[in-house]
Design a protein that fits this description.
The chain is α+β, with helices and mostly antiparallel strands. It folds into two domains: 121 residues, 3-Layer(aba) Sandwich (Aminopeptidase), CATH 3.40.630; 150 residues, Aminopeptidase (3-Layer(aba) Sandwich), CATH 3.40.630. The protein has eight helices and 13 strands. Strands 1, 2, 3, 4, 5, 6, 7, 8, 9, 10, 11, 12 and 13 form a 13-stranded mixed beta sheet that branches. A hairpin with a 5-residue loop joins strand 2 and strand 3.
């Protein structure tokens, strides 16, 4: 196995195109983030674009880390994941954590520990578990109110909702300024929708840019957030179904992630037609 750390995001996108097409759902985050960086829509503190090749120079594994976030690893053979882990010990020893399918993450950590780097001696623990869903047949709930695109004059309210969403799901916290920038970007791209009842925003849902591969176009729903005072009325289900419909009309297969520890959200997604594809784990290295 040969592990490459690629500096150019455009080179990474080109090198991984065929690999991502084989499993466009599980590689969607890597695809959407790398494309956003390439197009200048996203920027991070630092970048790690990883490619694993076999003895015939074929790509058999990919991963990325956009600081300050954890490393995201795509499905691959365990020996490829172990080789990647050993390289992480040499070239990214300060990695704060890693996320992906459980068996692949475990194999990567085995390789990382085998590197005997200083960082590999840190204690590792489960930070969260997410469930990956794909839409099979959309069921639109009958709920009071209607969906509409978010407006620019609502950016402050929507930024507060996005900040609260990140806090509730225990993802990497973002500042109000970062939340405002994210909301503004989604509004501009017509990728954020509100569910309105009696002139009040009762829930919001957005989607990432559609990722086109040689096999499929993939649309990812998220974030989805309902303020506490408007919960248990079906508003989150309704706005999620609306965003899902928008992506279907773009010709995309539709996916989303849900916190495995939240039975309410998982039940909602299943009721409107999503089926479980995989469980992903996010591991954290103590002291990061």
């Amino acid at each position: 196995m040969k592990v490459e750390l690629i500096e150019s995001v455009d080179e990474f996108i080109a090198a991984t195109k065929l690999f991502r097409a084989v499993d466009p759902l599980r590689t969607n985050v890597i695809g959407s983030v790398s494309l956003a960086v390439s197009e200048g829509d996203r920027s991070y503190d630092d970048y790690r674009w990883w490619v694993v090749r076999d003895d015939d120079s074929q790509v058999v594994g990919i991963a990325m880390r956009t600081s300050p976030f954890n490393m995201n690893i795509a499905p691959m053979a365990k020996d490829a994941a172990r080789a990647l882990g050993r390289s992480v010990g040499h070239y990214d020893d300060a990695v704060p954590g890693v996320s992906g399918s459980q068996d692949i993450v475990d194999a990567l950590i085995e390789g990382y520990v085998a590197s005997k780097s200083p960082g590999s001696r840190r204690v590792v623990s489960v930070q969260r578990r997410d469930l990956l869903y794909e839409l099979e047949e959309l069921m639109t709930p009958d709920v009071e109110g209607f969906a509409r695109p978010a407006r620019g004059d609502e950016v402050d309210l929507l930024a507060r909702m996005l900040s609260e969403f990140m806090r509730e799901v225990e993802l990497t916290p973002i500042s109000y300024a970062e939340a405002r920038e994210a909301a503004s970007r989604q509004i501009e791209n017509l990728a954020l929708y509100c569910w309105e009842v009696n002139e009040k925003i009762t829930a919001i849902a957005g989607h990432a840019p559609v990722v086109n591969t040689d096999s499929d176009a993939i649309g990812r729903v998220g974030p989805v957030y309902t303020p506490p005072e408007f919960r248990r009325h079906g508003y989150g289900s309704a706005v999620t179904a609306h965003v899902s419909r928008q992506l279907i009309e773009k010709g995309a297969r539709v996916m989303l992630f849900a916190d495995a520890a939240n039975p309410t959200s998982n039940g909602i997604y299943q009721e409107i037609g999503y089926r479980l594809v995989d469980e992903l784990v996010e591991m954290h290295f103590e002291g990061s």
